[in-house]
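Researcher: Good morning. I'm working through a list of sequences from a screen, and I'd like to move beyond sequence-only analysis. For each chain I'm collecting a predicted structure so we can compare shapes side by side. This is the next one on the list. No need for commentary yet; just the structure.
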Amino acid sequence: MFDRIHRGRMSPFGALLIGLLMFVSADPAQAARALEAWTIQEVPSEQETDPPQPVPEAEAESGTEQEAVAPPDPEGTAVPVTEPGTQVEEPAPTEEPVEDAQAARERRAQVAADKVASKALEDRQFEAAKDRYGLAVLIPAGLAILLAILTRQVVISLALGVLAGAYMLVPLLSVHPDYAKYAEAGGPVVAGFRLFAEEYLFGAVQDGDHLMILLFTLSIGFMIGVIGRNGGTQGLVKIVVGGKPTRRKGAVSTWFAGLVVFFDDYANTMIVGPTMRSVFDKLKLSRAKLAYIVDSTAAPVSSIALIGTWVGAEVGFIKDGFEGLGDDTPEFLQSVQPMDAFIASIPYRYYPILALVLVLIIAWTGRDFGPMRKSEQRAFDDQPPEDGDEFHSTEVGSQAFKARPLLGVLPILVLVFGALAVLWVTGTEALPGADADAREAAEQAVYEKQLADPDISEERLEAIRQRYLPPEERTTWEFITSVISSSNSYLSIFYGAILSAVIAVILTLLWRAAKMREVGEAAVQGMSHMFPALVILVFAWCLSAISTDLALGRIVGEELNKGWFDPVFLPLAVFICSAVISFASGSSWTTMGILCPMTVQIAARLGTGAEFETAGHSLEYFYASVGSVLAGAIFGDHCSPISDTTVLSSVSAGVSHEEHVWTQMPYAILTAVVAMGIGDVACRYYDQPWYVGLPVGAVVLLVFMLMFGRKPKDNGPRPVPVPDEATVLDTQV
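Model: Good morning. Structure tokens for this chain:
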């Protein structure tokens, strides 16, 4: 979840406002001296960064009155200097004060200095963790995942993993300024527990994005409970199943719904799962299979969609890699843009594409293997889950109320279109709203890039400026993709869920489908089923934060940069490293942010080798490598027990988190093995294109399911228990 924080970028105006507030709250003279000292130490002088432009002789000798600019005074204000006897024309008054160029440069310098200091601190933390632990930073995540699989007690396993990570951070407190205060109080035992409680557990709940996730999850539980009581769920079953209800129709319809809600993985999970839950109960399909279908169509389809909340981040990570190449960009990449690389890499993302194919195969054939087969057999026999979860029998929606399709359809439509509307509004607000804003953002980015690389070419600087074009200068396609990728998906689903819950209550009362007291009871009951998974979600966030502070991603990514693999198998090595990081951290965005820029640069340099250039395969291997890092990141997001998407899939399907993880894992591993074997090994070794690898992979999955998958057996009607004599007498009385 921490990997999505990069979506919100502070505007220059926001940074200036915060700086002014800090300046006012402190001693002004002291703040000015501190700012001046920081600027002298960290920021190049004005002469180095922005040399004055000479005045042409023709203009100097003309009768035109000229104004020179003297060096800034100690207060940082440029003082105009004029020739003696020259009359200076006063500037016309304006409605708003116009900030001069010197102040803009100082602000850009301060922002750049803050980023440099933050990057230096991150590097020190990385070096400290690498020197002390190395690959042992995998212990917290590995311990939590291993215990969860062995004990099937996810909450306790996650808590122990977070606690282990907190104690591993105790020797590194000196390089973490925010945590250094714990080193002086009570020794290492107390310090580790305080880190666990105060920084990670409390911090996970206090985070704004996390609070929105908790609230919109409860709001959706509220809505589910209400439409279950007013007959809306029964109406949805009639609409979706239609005519003659079949298990195949229900499963395939759910797969198709997962493809339709492609713009965001959270929206996909929280819309499709609750909508199809009652359908699966009616058709005697297990909730575990519903959770698997929802989870396998959420992140995979969102990651390859050309319009959605993922595309901006993925293109941004690729762009970071291109900018890191600078003037060393090889010839075969000179005409390739980051968006081109994103689109061209989609066919090489074997894992998410084959995951969608496997879901369709399972839904169409009705065959399963492993733990999922047992869950399907229990659902087919109308038996409770093996772990004792009584959610199926206690849900309000499972009772036989009068079917009212409209009361189920309208809240779902409000949830979908309400989320889309807020998605659009927040996206347009995040784009540069005026030419001045766009120029300021572009100049800040150019300034920072020039500080990092003084020899950067003008072509690269111009490419950076193009990223900050105002809306009126963008094409329709660029505008739509930029709006959605810049939007706040948390806020959109939050408001969509709130609106859907309100609409569900209003419709219930207008149709007199239930009394207010019954509506309240149903809403509370719907929310209560969300609480166990929300606890798991909080601990998963804690473990993700621990992995970030231990620099897990950078340490594992450094192994990839050592070149311990044959260049031909770069896509395979990238996929394995990406899958390991995403599975251990439970975060696909963190994985992509760490490995994608690094992979772009490694693949660009390896692509200049003779074995690639001679055969003309440099671009193909480059696209395959980029696709592999993005595909490997989906593996962890899809099936890691500590992934937020995995937890939310359990919530939306109404199944215990343990059962969902245990039943889904074999399918995810099967897909990953086929994707690596066919796509990253066979196709690369035998120089086969993607349009050969994908069909072959799909055929392999189909043959495997036909050979090893089995349909539930019809064991006939279950015997009705005969009441004893006492029960019969009591009933007669």
